[in-house]
Amino acid sequence: MMALGALALALSGFAALALAMDKHHRDLFGSPPPRGRAIALRAVGWVLLSMSLAASGASSGPSVGPVLWCGLMTVAAILVALVLTYGPSSRSRRKRAGAKPLRSAAGRR
Amino acid sequence: MTPLVPIIRRAADSVWSRVVAAVLGGYGFAVAASWFLASVLAQTAILQVGDSVHTGLLLSFAFYAAAVIRVLAVRSALRAWAELVLATAVLLGLGSLLTTPGGTV
Amino acid sequence: MSRGFRQTMVPAHTWAGLTVGWMLYFIFLTGTAGYFDTEIDRWMRPEIPFAETFPSRAEMLMRAEKRLGDVAPDAHETWIFFPDKRSPFLEVSWENADHVWHEEMLDPETGAPIRVRDTGGGQFLYQLHYRLHYLPPVLAFWLVSACAMFMLVAICTGVIVHKKIFADLFTFRPRKGQRSWLDAHNVLGVTALPFHLMITYSGLVFLMFTTMPVLINAFYGSGPEGQTRFFIDALSRPTDSPPAGVAAQTRPLTEFLSEAERRWGEGSVRYISVENAGDVNAVVEVNRSASGGLGTAETLLFHGATGERRGVVDQPAGANVLRVALLNLHEGLFADTVLRWLYFLSGLAGTAMIATGLHLWTVKRRQKNTSSGTPPAIGLSLVERLNIGTIVGLPVGIAAYFWANRLLPLEMDGRAAWEIHTMFLTWVATFAVAAWRRRDGAWLELSGLAAAAYGLLPVVNAVATDRGLIVSIARGDWVFAAFDLAAVAVGLFFLLLVRAVRRKRLQAATGRISEAAMEAPG
Fold first, then answer.
1. I need a labelling partner for C172 at 20 to 30 A (CA). Which of A109, C206, C303, C502 fits?
2. How many CB pairs under 8 A join A and C?
3. Beta-sheet strand order (sheet of C299-303)
C-alpha cells in the first residue's frame, strides 16, 4: 500500500516538474509558465519526489527502499511522458491547432 | 623503402588503431590503475590487503570506461596511445614497487 | 563540456552500441525474463501442485529425511530446501561418492516425489544471459563481460551525446520517423538510467574474478592457489573441512532445525544442508529464508557430530559489502512482488532502449539514402536484417521454447535439451526469413508470427495441461494466470507492431505519390 502511495507521489512530482518546463506548459496552457510559477512547480516537484523516497523507505526499509524508489520513478516518468503525448488535452490541442499533415510537420524541422 | 614509414604512421593514427587502444590499451590501463590504487591502500594501511585488492577490482571497470572515453576524445590516435602507454607504465611501475603480498603465502 | 568533446562522442556512442547491440539485446531480454525465473519454472513444470500453505518445517524435514534415506543412504552431501510462496514444493538434492548430483521435488504434504517433466525451465532462460548455452563457460563470461564493457561506454557516452536528455525527459513526439525513435531511445534510457548503470556495472562485477585475474595474482601469487588465498582473505569464506575418514553419527537434523527456529521464529528456515555426512567432520548448515536485503541472509554452521555451533555467516565485511550489495542489486532476489515487477519493467526498458538504438541507426542511414537517391549500402541492409532477426526473432525463439515445453512428448529422451534446440533452431529460421524476405515483409511476417506464438500460448497451455487460464484464475493461482496473461500482453504488443509497420508502409506509398505530384509543377 505504501508503495502505491510512493508511486502516486512520484507521478505527481514528475507531473509538476514537466509543467515547469516551457514546452509542456505551453502544450497544456498555450504559453510558457511565468517565472514564479515555474520555480514554484519545480520546487513542488522535487519536494514530492523526496516524499516519494521517504514513502519508499517507509515501505521497504532504508536499503531496499531506494531501490523501490528508482523503479517507481522509472515507471512514473514514462507514464507522465505517455500522458503528455497521448493524453486527452494534447489530443484536443492538436485538433484545435488544426493538425497539419504529417509530412509538412516533419518538413518544418 | 621509403613508403613504409608513412604507411605505419598512417596505420598507427587510423580509426582501427584507436579502437585497439580503447579496447586493449584501456584494459591495460584499468589493470595498472587498480593495481596502483590497491597497493597504495594496502601500503598506507587504509585497508587490509584483501580489501585493497578487492576495492581495486571493483573500481577497475570505472578506470576502464574512463580510459576508453579519453582515448576516443583526444585529437589523434597517436596522442591517445602516447597518453595511455605513459599513464599505464607509470601506474604499473609504482604499483609493482608498492605491492604488499597478501595472505599467508 | 565543450561542443567538440560532445561531437567526438557521437561516433563512439554509435559504434559502441551497434557492434554489440544484438548481443546486448539478447543479454537484456533473457536476463529480464530471469527476474521471473522461479515463476517460469513453475509454469514449465505444471505437475507441481498449486499450494499456498505448508505443513510445519519439522514435519517436512521428517519426510525429506525419509526420502533421502530411501534413495541416497550413502550420499556424502545432502540439501533440503523448504517450500515458500514462489516455490511451493519440498526439494532434496544429494551428491553420491561418484560426485554426481541428484535432485528431486517432493510433495510437502506427503513427501512423495513429484514426477516433473524434463525441462530447462526459467532457470535456463536466466542462465542464458551470461552462460550463452552452447559456448564453454569461460569464453561466455569473457564475451558477456566485453559486451557489458561496451554497454558501460555506450551509457556514459550516451549521457554526453544526448545533451538534452534531462530537458527532454518527458518528450516523445510520435509518428515523426527518426525524431520519434530518438525520443523513445532517450526516454527509455534516461528514465531507467540508474537501473542501466547498476545492472551493467554489477554485471561486470559478477565476473570480475574471471576477467581481472592479474590484480589478484599480483598480490596473492600466481594460479588458482593465489586466487584461493585471496578468496579466504577478502571474502572471509569459511575454510573447508575435509572429511576425516572417521565415522561418526550425525545428530538428528531436527535438533538443528529447532535451534534455528528458536533464533529466527517458526517457518523461517530456507534450507538445511549436511556436508561430510556420517563423518566426524560433518558440517550442518541452516540458512534463514528472510531476505537479507542488500546484505546476506544469516546462516548457522554446526558440527554435525556434536551439535556444537561452529559459527555464523552473516553480513559481509570490508570491500565485500559493496560487492555483495551490487550482486544483490543485480539479481533482485530480495524483491517482493511489486519490486520484482519494477525490476522486470526496468529490464524491458533497457531491452527496448537497445532495440530502438539499433533501429535508429538504420532509420538515419535510410533517410540519408532516400534523400540522396542512392541505393542502400550492403552494411545498411545487413544491419536491417540482423535487427529484424534479433529484435523479433529472439522473442519468437523464446515462444518456441515455451511451446516445446508443452508439446514435446513427456517421455522423450533428452527432452530438456530439445526444448533448447527448438528455441535456437526457430531463432535461426527467423534469421533466414529476415535475410530472404523484403525488409517490410520480414518485419510484418515475423511480428505477426510472434503475435500468434504468444497470443496462442494460453490456448496451448489450456489444451496440453489441466491448468488453463480460467482454472488458474478460479483457484487464485496467480503465477500461472500471470504467465498466460503476460503472454497475451506480449502477443498484443507484437500485434501493435504489425499495425504500425503496415501504416508506415501505406504512408510511404502515399508519400511517394504526393512527392511526385509536388515535384511535377516545379
1. C502
2. 82
3. C101-106, C90-95, C77-81, C269-275, C283-288, C299-303, C309-313
Task: Quote the percentage of chain C above a pLDDT of 70.
Answer: 97
- pLDDT in the model for residue C3: 65
CA distance C435 to chain A (A): 31
DSSP-assigned letters across all residues of A46-61: HHHHHHHHHHHHHHHH
The secondary structure of C419-454 as a DSSP string is HHHHHHHHHHHHHHHHHHS-HHHHHHHHHHHHHHHH
Q: Residue A64: which of C170, C191, C334 has the nearest Cβ?
A: C334
H helix or E strand, kind and range, residue C78: strand C77-81
Rounded to the nearest 10 degrees, the angle between the axes of helix C478-519 and helix C393-407 is: 150
Total domains, chain C: 3
Residue labelled with grid coordinates 525465473: C37
How many other C-beta atoms are found inside a 10 Å radius of the C-beta of residue C311?
A: 11
Residue B12 in domain = no
Using CA coordinates, name the residue in chain C closest to B37: C215
pLDDT at A91: 53
Give domain status of residue C305, yes or no: yes
Q: Per the CB < 8 Å rule, is B47 touching C201? A: no
d(CA B38, CA B56): 5
Cβ-nearest to B49 among C5, C157, C233: C233
Count how many Cα atoms sit within 13 Å of the Cα of residue C193 in the half-sphere of its side chain: 15
In a domain, B104, yes or no: no
Number of domains in chain B: 1
pLDDT per residue as tens digits for the range C178-209 = 899 999 999 999 999 999 999 999 999 999 99
Average pLDDT of every residue of chain C: 92
pLDDT band at A106 (very low <50, low <70, confident <90, very high): very low
For residue C114, give the C-alpha cell.
Answer: 513429484
| Residue C385 belongs to some domain of the structure | no
Is residue A99 pLDDT above 70, yes or no?
A: no
C459 CB near a chain B CB, below 8 Å? no
Q: Quick one: which of C237, C162, C238, C148 has its CA closest to C197?
A: C148
Question: Are C504 and C449 part of one and the same domain?
Answer: yes
Grid cell for residue C437: 524476405
Q: C387 lies in a domain?
A: no
Give the pLDDT confidence score for residue C504 in this predicted structure. 84
Global ipTM: 0.92
Q: How many domains does chain A have?
A: 1
- pLDDT score recorded for residue C292: 72
Q: Is C424 on the interface with A (CB under 8 A)?
A: no
CA distances in angstroms from C471 to A17, C84, C314, C481, C502, listed in the order given: 45, 22, 42, 9, 37
Inspect the structure and tell me whether chains A and B have 3 or more CB pairs less than 8 Å apart: no
Residue C380 included in any domain: no
Q: Kindly state the average pLDDT of the residues C113-124.
A: 96
The verdict on C140 and C249 lying in the same domain is no
Q: What is the mean pLDDT of residues C262-266?
A: 91
Give helix then strand counts, H and E, for chain C.
Answer: 20, 7
Is residue B18 one of the residues assigned to a domain?
no
Looking at A88-92, B83-87, C147-151, C476-480, which range is the least confident one? A88-92
Q: Which domain holds residue C419?
A: 392-516
C318 to B51: CB separation less than 8 angstroms, yes or no: yes
pLDDT at C337: 93
DSSP letters for C457-522: HHHHHHHHSS--HHHHHHHT-HHHHHHHHHHHHHHHHHHHHHHHHHHHHHHHHHHHHHHHHHHTT-
8 Å CB contact between C309 and C256:
no
Using alpha carbons only, how large is chain C's radius of gyration in Å? 27
* Chain A residues with beta carbon closer than 8 angstroms to that of C176: 102, 105-106
Q: Is C376 exposed, middle or buried (0-12, 13-18, 19+ CB in 10 A)?
A: middle
